[in-house]
Amino acid sequence: MNPFGSPVLSVPEQSAEDLGVSSNEQQVIAFISGIPEEINDSWLEKILSTCGEIASWKRVQSADGSPQAFGFCEFKSIHDATRTVRVLGTGGLWTMPSTYSQPLNIQLDAKKKHHHERGIDSKQNDSDILQSLERIFDEIEKSKSVAQNGNEGKLSPKESANDEELVGFSLDLEEAWEKDQAKKARHKRYVTAAEEREKHISIALKERESRLERNAMRELDDVEEKQRRQEAMSALLSKWDDSQEEQLGEHEYYRDRQRWWRRRKSERAHEMEVDEADRYRQEREESANTNEAATATDQRDVIEALIKEIPSDPKLLFEWPVKWEYIDANLVKTKVEPAVRKRLVEYLGGEGDDSSVDELTEYVTAHIQQHKPPQGLVEELEMVLVDEALVFVARIWRFVVYESEACARKL
């Protein structure tokens, strides 16, 4: 696995018996990282060849063609590979000049690692290699000086050929890496959306529980207030002496019964109005909760039934008679276009700096607005989405069918 997170070129493993050679004669692939910016492919190939005989050197490039700080070197034998690690690797015999930002890091193919120690050739004349490396780095320094003075020469034919060869190699790696990143991004979006839905549901449930709790507390307060008034009245009546109160004449009932009755009727009417309003409020809240739940359930059932009614098979889906009279410019702009853009970002792996997503979104929405058949859209998008064009168009077409049916059925 590439330590930068990009996929690594897989190499079929064959045994020495299959090849008819000893293990030391088998070619070995090494992962080279930490390549300084100052060292181009031509110089690095010279450096690696000084330590051991190599079959190929391929440096990874980004999508815009700029060289990355890592690549893959195929050595012709385990001796060549281990000698290179011993000389150039971290803590090796050769120490890069301090002007370079970082040392080379060389990792052998994991399947060949067990040969590392056995492959060391202690009899190799290391002084010759070190002297050669010294000369190479002197030449590199001279070329840097020339470049700084504005006299940088053109690439040699060999360097140009190597660059062209590496473009296809690096693009394959980048494409695999980008697909993996797009897959992870889609998964992350799905997880985020699920978490958001759970969050909204949790908030709605808490609000409902809070509303029910407030209603329960209000009803409890009403019950306690009525009970308090009843207890106060019972205590008063238990000590009430009607003849004595009549003689004292302090209570309004005994002083002016008509006046007392008029006031009592007014108070009673007010109490009845308050009780009626309270009952109406409770009934309305209960009815609203019931209707809200019933309406939401009915609406969800109707929508789910419509979704199940629309076929998933592209052949049957493309034969569905779309109700185009409901697919107007406003619906395309507010609903269809965002859905198309979202799907394109998923398939292409991001918005990117170029305008490819914008152009494709405009093309797809224009195709839909012109009421053109979906099969033509599949054929046009195959140049961009290749095998995924049919699935992409089917998803978009299913959305168009759903929106037209939802509008027609007034959902």
UniProtKB/TrEMBL annotation:
<dbReference type="InterPro" id="IPR052768">
    <property type="entry name" value="RBM25"/>
</dbReference>
<keyword id="KW-0175">Coiled coil</keyword>
<feature type="domain" description="PWI">
    <location>
        <begin position="315"/>
        <end position="411"/>
    </location>
</feature>
<keyword id="KW-0694">RNA-binding</keyword>
<dbReference type="Pfam" id="PF01480">
    <property type="entry name" value="PWI"/>
</dbReference>
<feature type="domain" description="RRM">
    <location>
        <begin position="28"/>
        <end position="111"/>
    </location>
</feature>
<dbReference type="InterPro" id="IPR002483">
    <property type="entry name" value="PWI_dom"/>
</dbReference>
<feature type="region of interest" description="Disordered">
    <location>
        <begin position="272"/>
        <end position="294"/>
    </location>
</feature>
<feature type="coiled-coil region">
    <location>
        <begin position="206"/>
        <end position="233"/>
    </location>
</feature>
<dbReference type="InterPro" id="IPR000504">
    <property type="entry name" value="RRM_dom"/>
</dbReference>
<dbReference type="InterPro" id="IPR034268">
    <property type="entry name" value="RBM25_RRM"/>
</dbReference>
<dbReference type="Pfam" id="PF00076">
    <property type="entry name" value="RRM_1"/>
</dbReference>
<dbReference type="InterPro" id="IPR035979">
    <property type="entry name" value="RBD_domain_sf"/>
</dbReference>
<dbReference type="GO" id="GO:0005681">
    <property type="term" value="C:spliceosomal complex"/>
</dbReference>
<dbReference type="InterPro" id="IPR012677">
    <property type="entry name" value="Nucleotide-bd_a/b_plait_sf"/>
</dbReference>
<protein>
    <recommendedName>
        <fullName>RRM domain-containing protein</fullName>
    </recommendedName>
</protein>
<feature type="compositionally biased region" description="Basic and acidic residues">
    <location>
        <begin position="272"/>
        <end position="287"/>
    </location>
</feature>
<dbReference type="GO" id="GO:0003729">
    <property type="term" value="F:mRNA binding"/>
</dbReference>
